[in-house]
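Worked example (supplementary).
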Amino acid sequence: MSDELNFFFLLLSNGLLIGLMYALIALGFVLVYKATDAVNFAQGEFVMIAGLVVAASLSVWGVPLWLSVILGFVSMIGFGFALERVMLRKLIGRPVIAVVMATIGLASILRGIGPATLGAGTKSLPLPIPDEPIVLGPLFIPPIQLVGGALSLLFLAGFGWFFLKSRKGIAMRAVADNQQVAMAMGINVERYFGLAWAMTGLVSALGGVIWGNLLGVDVNLSLVGFKVFPVVILGGLDSIPGAIIGGLIVGVVENVAAGYVDPFVGGGTKDFAPYVLMILALMIRPYGIFGKKIIERV
Amino acid sequence: MIQRECGVLKTTYEADMALYPLPIARWTMLFLGVIFFGIIPMGLHEYYLSIANLVWIAAVGALGLNILVGYTGQVSIGHGAFMSVGAYTAANLANRLDSPWPVNLIAGGLMAALIGAIVGIPSVRIKGLYLAIATLAGQLIIEWTINHVTFISGGVQASIEVARPRLGPWVLSSQRAMYYFLLVFVVLAIVGTMNLVRSRVGRAFIAIRDQDIAAEIIGINIFRYKLLAFAISSFYAGVTGVLYTYYLGIANYEQFQIGVSIDYLAMIIIGGLGSVLGSIFGAFFVTLLPIVIRYTMEAFGGIFFDPQTVLNLIPNLRLMLFGALIIFFLIVEPDGLNRLWRNIRNYFRIWPFAY
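After joint prediction of all chains, the assembly is encoded as:
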């Protein structure tokens, strides 16, 4: 194969793997939107704070890795429940901008509280995964991305099954579809809202561990949250398969764009290209590839 | 003698539409005028005036954003970028063509209005959350463009110096001169906004906010008015950017990043959506908050922590309090400081003879 083609395949494979890891973070956003119609502008901060908890317990308090990860998962689930109880429940039935601004406020709090209590320096989050990339012909694949991609697929499949088959998942879809009817059918709507936020906490904790290992843990880890919006808009805000497809598209587009355009403009295409793509998607198909189309009546 | 009304006793349309329904309103205006044009700039030290100037700049931007979010109901997370459009337009004009500041100010505003209207085009098809994300994309794309196109940003550091504004023979270099300069624009912005929302255009905006499909049915051209709202609001934002550039003496994209967009949204939410007075309250509150936190921590933080911790804590504390206040106002008082003020005023309106 020619070098040109090799380069392209390298970008493509890296894009696909990164895309799966974007899908993992987007999953947290989709879960909440699917069940509660609330949007979470603090998704990146969730990931950051989860990574920070794990990294801090690992390096500052000297807790073994498996226990730190469990601690991270448990604290994020608890945080999800508490958040719904204290903040989101009070905002039910309010305009979209109220929830958007409340989660932006939450993001601000998390950005302040993390460094203030757990330390501002960049922490490493070492996982027992080798560093040397796996060489597959022309491709270099870092093992952490492979593990991250596999875990994302596992989680996405797990939640897909949960919503399609399990009793709780079906109840949650009912809540998402129509809250009043769900209440009339004897579903405890508020409990399912809490559950949805706890599930987001769980997914964010996993994202925090994997992305924290990849990028190192500090406040800037929350910037991965900016990648969530193109992913979910492309895939559809309430669709789990959409999160995968959207994640893959965004991962590939940003890697290929960065590979070919960056040399000419001096960097930054990675953060820019997904949003251009998203604007186009909003113009053509605002509800996304798999999203439900909302029909509005007066 | 201060008299307040006791019931609605108007018998003519003129009385109903009067700008000052009671003598006390006229006295209040005079009183505020004396305070803000006389006592504050004469009595305060230059340093405090520099803070007041920041408040005035924020007030213009908050009024503009409130026209869009509070009156028309369209969310924008891109106002920081619109300000940078105005700032860089003015800075480039000032340096390349050596044009006077009024030209730069209007050109900056108009350029921002144009870009704002373009970013607002998706609002015709989408709304709410989708629009919020689309304007967020606008913010990031404009930021990237300014940062990477050297023709706009002036090369390294992406910052352009501008000369102080001149008024005839005077160069407005002191904070006191800037105070009057900025205050004139605040008054213009307040009068402009109040008149806008009383007009045909303003009523169309409010109809779109309340229910845009219904507004379309009664014959409001949604496309035109939504873009007009974006354009007017961005014009204010562009003017804010130009004013800020003249205040700092430099145009720099770092002053207009996404955090600024969120600060302005916080101002109108804390102050009160859809209210002119609320925008001013919000501008005061959000601009003064970090300054108050810094002073409080410097004065009392040493009691609890060692000095190094205090220095690290100040920016984080600002983020935490800022976020907590947004959430607090959203949950407890969605109408913001403006509603609190009205409650107080209504209580004293009939005090001490409340029945």
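Two points are worth noting when inspecting this output. Chain B touches chain A through 44 residues (CB under 8 Å). Chain B has 15 helices and four strands.
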